[in-house]
């Protein structure tokens, strides 16, 4: 930060503040645990671009694939001697913003949404029914609007950029924050940071639900003139608006992060303060670090073998992977599941998910960080807390076994009479 008036912002508290906002903004669209804008708009995008659940699953998975492929290179390059983690974080936010703009591009390259059938109660029934004799010998035009499905490639590109941009937040961001605070405060700071990663998707669900109450082609088309309301089956909301907002927010948050130095001025005092119970080694460039896993790419295979032989590390990694599989699947399709099971609009489904995610995810993360700091839990104590929470989660999943049966559809689920 060149202006002297901004020098007081070079502290661990301000670093936490801006990292939390970066994590919250990142959580609005793709996100690590609970997804925001992307998953709110899943059903709307499927209808508008003639996509299947398989296609939208690939779109959602593109984020994770890009993040996995970039994690090791970004962690290595950002941790090298002389590298600035703050600049890597800022660059990641800019890339995420570009990905958000790319994700919204299909809306501006497709024609206006055309409603062919009336949906209001007062509509003339002759427009939504047909004569059996009139369709004998005719075939359906399956080629109509099939070309819209090709936009899934654009959606996947946007998600890839999201994944690349989010990688520094959960590799370098955690390390940068941990290096800048006293050891005893580290768990609380990280708890707040991860809590914002859950609050972000919740904000995305709530805001995305509100955007879905706005017609997709607003303000150029009045839905009332088409006989459409938010309760109509053929209503499509403004799914693209949230991505423009989050794209701008990502780029704005990048600027404060760019002003932080590689090492905070009060870093030495915090590490050597009496409140810190652990001394950390210092590298030649002045950054706090533990013993490095590898200093060069040639050491990467041996470092990988050492990690893979660590049973505790492997077990924790597998546990995190299983949790990620479960939560990613839930986050992607839970709004669609609520829509179909409870027959509610997409906007209300998003609100329900958002209201659940804030107290559950954010509160749980903050509670975990507070418990570690309050009771100074050891590794064994932390693992016991994790096991207890996982047990309650497993019991709650039994509720998914209770569901409503599908409506019977003549000719599909059941036979016609005498046929």
Automatic annotation (TrEMBL):
- Specify whether Transmembrane is a keyword of the entry: yes
Cellular component GO terms, alphabetical: basolateral plasma membrane
PROSITE patterns associated with the record:
MFS
The positions making up the signal sequence are 1-27
Instruction: Give the keywords, sorted.
Output: Disulfide bond, Membrane, Signal, Transmembrane, Transmembrane helix
InterPro entries of this UniProt entry?
MFS_dom, MFS_trans_sf, OATP
Q: Which GO terms describe its biological process?
A: sodium-independent organic anion transport
A Gene Ontology molecular function term of the record: sodium-independent organic anion transmembrane transporter activity
Per UniProt, residues of the Major facilitator superfamily (MFS) profile domain are 15-419
- Please state where this protein is localized: Membrane
Q: Name one Pfam family in it.
A: OATP
Q: How does it sit in the membrane?
A: Multi-pass membrane protein
Q: Does the keyword tRNA-binding apply?
A: no
SUPFAM superfamilies reported for this sequence: MFS general substrate transporter
Q: Which residues cross the membrane?
A: 88-109, 154-177, 189-216, 236-258, 313-338, 350-371, 383-403
Q: What is this protein called?
A: Major facilitator superfamily (MFS) profile domain-containing protein
Could you tell me which species this protein originates from? Hyalella azteca (Amphipod)
